[in-house]
Amino acid sequence: MKTDLPPEAYAAALASFPHMSIHRLGALLRHHQPHEAYAIAAGEHPPAGLIGRVLADPDVCAAWRRAGRSSLLDDVWDRCTRLGLQVLLHGAADYPQLLLDDPLPPPVVFAEGDLSLLDGRRAGIVGTRNATAAGRDTATTLGRQLADADVHVVSGLARGIDGCAHRGALQTCGAGRPIAVVASGHDVVYPREHRVLWAAVAECGLLLSECAPGTAPEAYRFPMRNRVIAALSEVVIVVESRQQGGSLITVNEAIERNVPLMAVPGGVHNRAATGTNQLIRDGAGVVVDVTDVLIALAMDHRRSSGALNDPRPRPSGADLAIYETCAGEPRTIDGLALACSLSLVDAAMAVARLEHSGWIQQSDGWFEAVGSPLR
Amino acid sequence: MLAAVRSATLLGVEGRPVTVEVHVSTGLPGFQIVGLPDEACRESRDRVRAAVMSSGLPWPSCRMTVNLAPSNQRKGGSGLDLAIAVGLLIANGEVPPDSVADLGFIGELGLDGSLRAVAGVAPMVGALSDLTPVVARASFREARAVSPGSVRVAAFLREIIDALTGVSPWPDEPDDDFVDDEPPIPDLSDVRGQALARTALEVAAAGGHHLLLVGPPGAGKTMLAQRLTGLLPPLTPALALEATMVHSAAGVRLPSVGMIRRAPFRAPHHSSSMVSLVGGGTSNLRPGEISLAHGGVLFLDELGEFSPMVLDGLRQPLEEGVIRVARARASATLPARFLLVAATNPCPCGGGPPGACDCDDGARLRYLRRLSGPLLDRFDLRVGVARPGVDDLLQSGGGESTAAAAARVSTARSAAVELRGMLNSEIPASHLDILAPLQPAARSMLRNELERERLTGRGYHRIRRVSRTIADLDGDMSAVVAEQHVALALQLRVRLRVSVREQVA
Fold first, then answer.
1. pLDDT digits over A205-264, tens only?
2. B259 SS3 class
3. Nearest to B83, CA basis, from B41, B141, B50
4. In angstroms, what CA-CA distances link A35 with A32, A68, A107, A207, B64?
5. Do A335 and B484 lie within an 8 Å CB cutoff?
6. Contact residues of B toward A, CB < 8 A
């Protein structure tokens, strides 16, 4: 066994063992120094307790021995140093205080970026990957306005709401930054179309993962990732969620950790909002704009009401009628023309003006009201 | 003794004159056909022998050789049966040789001596324009449509022999009872609501713009597509003749008037093979669905389910208006100028209003990627079709009728051809500023769309052509394209939600 490697290298290698769960890794590292734990897992020292029972499984035993004999130890550490990752061990001095007393604390955290962000105010924004245009817009705006109010935005860098929240936080020069918790190694970007966003978060904010570099985004890792999002947030805001969405896992984790829950209400016919509306019915706080979040965080919200000086030109006449119809429920151009008793051409002109000034947005032929509502 | 009889064979949609030479001599009795006959053609030996004997005529026990000249061309089909039988009877001295001097024989024989119709009578008769065609009774209308002079018809070989030998006169031509037996085109007034899609049909018909209908199942995409042919003007005489040739060559039933006069509508299933769609086959290069849609509408429902290779095969004909099918032995150019209408769901689950779709972005992207690329670029019009609302369905009166819309289409179409010499979809990008100039307000609207990346460079040109057509339909044939025309054109090009949008960080 080499002696020139730091203890973090052994922990990082253990995290990338096959069949290694959070519970097993936790058990290994709780009772042993990392290099001892590594030797036990690799079969060089006799195991005891829970690990003994795990190693009684011949599959796990063989896989761990194989991993122990391979060059995994050097490879993983190599990647960590090359990526400039900080490897934080549970109980070490630099381990985030927030996670220390968690019911299921991550045994090892890989971090890239500014760890001091965890000492600031933090709000989690989660929601469906398959969001409507209006939902994306809400998430982006909330992310931006929270960052403007010096609140860091915690989310998961997934498609849809997550990505939009981070993107919003990056759009401003406020002190709030994005904090992302991902379910794969730092060098395995998932989803791939978020390459640029992923790099920007690591650069300007904080990118955390429980997975060692090189780890693939397997499905079972996402619920575990959601628990870390809940643990790092002072309040969790659900922007859009279906009846059984992955964001409801984050909700349950937040409840377990006594993190206040808030949700953005949606139209009663919008299936993408059934989960959030249910949360509100069950007692979650209502988020209509950023002020609601700042109040929940007991922060100064006197400057936050950006809607008062909305730069968009106020619609009037036919445009106003069209906007208000969209604001009620997404409509097609046919539906708008019918509802507002306009000809198709007049409706087309009105939506062109409204889209230009940013009041509505079209996708797949449906128009949705976006941005803060007209007051 | 030697005899020569004129007939024709089919290659693609063209008839090729063939001279059937028959030589009868002493020697071992036998019957041989040379001159590159295909399987169906070689089998005519047995049909001809049975038909001649069933007609009560003697079958000579001599050595008989049939040559199909020019002998370097492959000949397919059974249409040469009649000519071979007549040639044999002349060579045997049953029929005087000069009686067939100005006749061309096309038809298949039954074993009982009856005469049957074959595919492609119209182009074959067209190839024998200097002769009087003799065809089966069932082929009369096809032959009539292309033959300037008279047409001889018969139901049995015996009737022809009797006429040639002067025993009895030629059988009477069937009555020209030109009853329009074509099924009526479904009317637009059946469609409830769907104002945007109706406009799209009208624009597609007026400007020759290819149309993609995007919407969930049950939104009425097929119903709309079927009503498009009603908006197209009747075929011009030249186009009607081409369409008739294609239908005849493919063996598709022609209307009782003999000519295709109405724009055809073809809707091949998505399991269709490449050859069935673009044409081909081993011997006579049968026209495919795109040629059958010549002058009309080709409707591809569930576009994403077609094999990508088949769809790629559509690109060249869409560009050139013809399809060149080449095989080792022969090649043919088939007409294929059609209006392409395709329908697709926006995603695997069918989609619907925002929030209704349960597919994740990956699945959506994979679904759309099947259609994306060069083919998707060919559609000038991309229209979202939503399921009609309850109010629309319960509405008592339907919308405007086909006739009213067709009148506008016809005016706009003829004006376009008169003023610009082409349909609006064919205006080259370089001529857009001359033929479809924009008002300043319209220009700034388009600039805005381009700046916000809601429109690509290619989409920009397509929008301009479509706005031209909308302006034409509005009655401003020569005027500048105005803001409201562009606004409507933008609605006729729906933006599809895919995760690519998320790339903009």
1. 999 999 999 999 999 999 999 999 999 999 999 999 988 878 899 999 999 999 999 999
2. coil
3. B41
4. 8, 11, 15, 26, 100
5. no
6. 193-196, 199, 214-215, 346, 351, 353-362, 383-386, 389, 391, 445, 448, 483-484, 487-488, 490-491, 494-497, 499-500, 502-503, 505
A53 touches chain B (CB under 8 A): no
Crossing angle of the two packed helices B457-474 and B402-420, in degrees rounded to 10 = 110
pLDDT at B497: 63
CB contact under 8 A, A129 and B194: no
Compare all CA atoms of chain A with the CA of B355 and give the residue at the minimum distance: A272
Query: Distance between CA atoms of B344 and B4, rounded to whole angstroms?
Result: 56
Write out pLDDT tens, residues B276-322: 998 887 667 889 999 999 999 999 998 888 888 888 889 889 888 89
Any B CB within 8 A of A49 CB: no
- Compare all CA atoms of chain A with the CA of B215 and give the residue at the minimum distance: A364
Q: Are B355 and A364 within 8 A, CB to CB? A: no
pLDDT attached to residue B505: 28
Task: Summarize pLDDT for B309-360 with one digit per residue, the tens.
Answer: 888 889 889 888 899 888 877 788 899 999 999 998 888 887 778 777 777 7
Tell me how far apart the alpha carbons of residues B31 and B463 are, in angstroms, rounded to a whole number: 66
Backbone angles phi and psi of B211, in degrees to 5: -130, 130
Please say if the pLDDT value at position A120 is more than 90: yes
What value of ipTM does the predicted structure carry?
A: 0.80
pLDDT at B398: 66
User: Which tokens sit at A209?
Assistant: 């993962």
Would you call the peptide bond into A191 cis, given omega within 30 degrees of 0 as the criterion?
Answer: yes
Establish if A326 touches chain B: CB-CB under 8 angstroms: no
Residue B289 token pair: 């669905």
Q: Distance, in angstroms, between A349 CA and closest chain B CA?
A: 5
Query: Which of B194, B355, B487 lies at the smallest CB-CB distance from A349?
Result: B487
DSSP three-state, residue A139: helix
Return d(Cα B135, Cα B153) in angstroms, integer. Answer: 5
Report the pLDDT value the prediction gives residue A232, as an integer from 0 to 100.
95
Q: Rounded mean pLDDT of chain B?
A: 87
Cβ distance of B195 and A337 shorter than 8 Å: yes
Torsion angle of the four alpha carbons A210, A212, A213, A219, in this order, in degrees rounded to the nearest 10 = -60
Give the Cα-Cα-Cα angle B151, B152, B155 (nearest 5 degrees): 135
Please tell me if residue A366 touches chain B, with a CB cutoff of 8 Å: yes
CA distance A278 to A281: 5
Q: What angle do CA B80, B82, B88 make, to 5 degrees?
A: 100
Query: How many residues are present in chain B?
Result: 505
Q: What is this structure's pTM?
A: 0.79
Tokens of A307: 């809607």
- Conformation bin of residue A305: beta by default, left when phi > 0, alpha when psi is -120 to 50: beta
First and final C-alpha spacing in chain B: 88
A196 contact B CB<8A: yes
Residue B365 scores a pLDDT above 90 = no
Q: Tell me whether residues B448 and A269 touch, CB distance under 8 A.
A: no
A356 lies within 8 A of chain B by CB: yes
CA dihedral (A144, A145, A148, A151) in degrees, to 10, reads: -90
Banded model confidence at residue B503, pLDDT cuts 50, 70, 90: very low
Contact residues, chain A, for B355 at CB < 8 Å:
132, 135, 240, 266, 270-273, 330
Residue A179 and residue A98: Cα distance in Å, rounded? 14
- DSSP string covering A175-188: S--EEEEESS-TTS
pLDDT in tens, A317-353: 899 999 999 888 889 998 899 889 999 999 999 999 9
